[in-house]
TrEMBL record:
Keywords for the protein's UniProt record, in alphabetical order: Cell membrane, Glycoprotein, Ion channel, Ion transport, Ligand-gated ion channel, Membrane, Receptor, Transmembrane, Transmembrane helix, Transport
Keyword Chloroplast: no
Species whose genome carries this gene: Steinernema carpocapsae
A single GO molecular function term of this UniProt record: ligand-gated monoatomic ion channel activity
Record protein name field: Ionotropic glutamate receptor L-glutamate and glycine-binding domain-containing protein
Length: 291
């Protein structure tokens, strides 16, 4: 039974043909006690010799016509030309297997028109037909479930379905678009940077005032703030202090500003390069309000 469990259906019928051809070669080249035997191993129900299937009629139960997996119950090339579209993914798989093994299918309808469930130890619907031996194959996009895997042999999944939730896009940067350049750092970081500039300006003012007798250049408080702001934005200082204490302080500030600027630049590039999803909620309680 073809099974589904994504968005894109990817079936390569040529690969399926090559696998069947490889199985035929295995049968041809295998000798067991003078007989050529090959088994299709079924983990639940029984073992089936592949040679015994050739030329047989298999009963195929179709729970429902469900495009694009089953479009109609006729996989012949003639029917495809008459309708103008294919019989469906599952029907095309059955057609390839029938061509390789010379099989004929007898299509049956599910009694309830559903896949069926396992209630009180009994299967209903299409799986009931399969388990009770009234059908050999279920043709359709079977969803993989644990109880179904215990009663049948599901094929490898050819589709994966993703479940998501659609929410309204948050109106971010609607009125203050220019503030996007501040996104790399939180508001607390920017506040601490401004406070550090002011505190450093006060410290530089005190140092230069204390070294007035040593012919140190005197700056006003506004000039001190401007010096550290220039260092913060990687700009030069027009008039350099002459004392060792003042120059050491500016040197440490230069090293700190280089590290801070590198962090800011990298975060800003990542902000523009990577699409960041901003949700309208941050907890399950808030999410329940939208439902």
């Amino acid at each position: 039974m073809p099974s589904t469990s994504g968005r894109n259906v990817s079936i390569n019928l040529q690969i399926l043909k090559r696998r069947l051809i490889k199985e035929k070669e295995t049968i041809k080249n295998t000798e067991i006690k003078g007989r050529r035997e090959f088994y299709l191993m079924h983990p639940v129900r029984k073992e089936v010799r592949l040679e015994e299937l050739r030329g047989k009629v298999l009963r195929v139960v179709v729970p429902k016509v469900e495009p694009p997996y089953v479009n109609y119950l006729n996989y012949s090339v003639k029917a495809e030309k008459e309708r103008g579209y294919g019989p469906g993914v599952v029907m095309e798989i059955l057609r390839v297997i029938a061509d390789e093994l010379d099989l004929t299918y007898e299509f049956l309808e599910s009694p309830e028109g559903e896949w069926g469930t396992f209630d009180n130890g009994t299967w209903t619907g299409a799986f009931g037909e399969l388990v009770n031996g009234r059908a050999d194959i279920i043709a359709g996009a079977t969803i993989m479930q644990y109880d179904r895997s215990q009663a049948s042999d599901l094929t490898y999944p050819f589709q994966f379905e993703m479940t998501g939730m659609l929410i309204r896009s948050p109106e971010q940067y609607t009125d203050n678009t220019f503030l996007i350049v501040t996104e790399p750092f939180k508001l607390e970081v920017w506040g601490l940077a401004a406070a550090t500039i002011c505190v450093s300006a006060i410290a530089l003012k005190c140092i230069t005032t204390a070294l007035r007798s040593q012919m140190e250049i005197q700056y006003s408080f506004v000039q001190c703030v401007w010096i550290f702001f220039s260092v913060f934005v990687q700009q030069g200082v027009p008039i350099q202090p002459t004392s060792w204490s003042s120059r050491s302080m500016l040197s440490f500030w230069w090293l700190a500003s280089i590290t801070l600027l590198a962090t800011y630049t990298g975060s800003l590039v990542a902000l523009f390069a990577v699409d960041k999803t901003v949700l309208s909620f941050k907890s399950n309680e808030i999410c329940r309000k939208f439902t």
